[in-house]
Design a protein that fits this description.
Layout: H1 8-15, H2 32-35, H3 52-67, H4 71-83, H5 88-97, H6 100-106, H7 113-121, E1 125-127, E2 130-131, E3 144-147, H8 151-163, E4 172-175, E5 181-184, H9 199-206
Antiparallel strand pairs: 1-2, 1-3, 3-5, 4-5
Helix pairs in contact: 3-9, 4-5, 5-9, 6-7
């Protein structure tokens, strides 16, 4: 599974916005973006004005870093959004929000999207009673996302739930029973995305 191994705090500083890539740490004084919000690199503090292309590119990179996807996979989502009915930018954000690793994070099973991606890849998560280890799996309305009924799986994820890092959105319903699970009540839309993003800029860039 390909992934970007760059220091995550550099990503927030480069995009000029807190992407919450380190879970609860991002809300403390230890957050690198809080202490030093200028762009990374020796000339980061003297960052000049972005060109029109640069503005479009940074918007796309911000979304890629937020969801933890690489260029090839992002292009795949964009192609799917182009072929679907409706506003391409809003459809694109809805597709990214439907990723299984993101749903696991939004349910509060993971402290960050990277940890949630690890839970999925290591086989701790089930969809409709079947183990799914593909983080990019797109959930559907009515899907039941549950933790595998194993002591190690339940212990690790219940600890994250007890920490209560973030609230569960209204398109999901979480059941904190003996085996934590959640139901996709409806498909997420662009309005459910936690990131402030101008998807129209992304569409303009990727359509060229």
């Amino acid at each position: 599974m390909a992934r970007n191994t760059e220091a995550v705090c550099r990503k927030c500083r480069r995009e000029g916005v807190k992407l919450s890539l380190k879970g609860s740490r991002c809300g403390t004084d230890k957050c690198a973006f809080t202490r030093r919000s200028n762009a990374p690199g020796m000339h980061g503090a003297r960052k000049g004005k972005l060109t029109d292309y640069g503005i479009h590119l940074r918007e796309k990179q911000k979304v890629k870093n937020f969801y933890g996807v690489l260029e090839k996979q992002f292009r795949k989502y964009f192609t799917m959004a182009e072929r679907a009915k409706g506003n391409t930018g809003k459809v694109l954000m809805g597709l990214l929000e439907r990723r299984l690793d993101n749903i696991v994070y939004r349910l509060g099973f993971g402290a960050s999207r990277s940890q949630s991606r690890q839970w999925v890849a290591h086989g701790h998560i089930q969809v409709n009673g079947r183990r799914v280890d593909i983080p990019s799996y797109l959930v559907r309305q009515g899907d039941i996302i549950s933790v595998r009924n194993r002591p190690t799986s339940k212990k690790a994820i219940k600890q994250v739930i007890d920490d209560g890092i973030h609230e569960v959105p209204d398109f999901l319903l979480r059941d904190e029973g003996e085996t934590p699970k959640g139901t996709v009540m409806r498909l997420p839309t662009a309005e459910d995305v936690l990131l402030d993003v101008n998807s129209a800029l992304i569409v303009e860039l990727c359509s060229k």
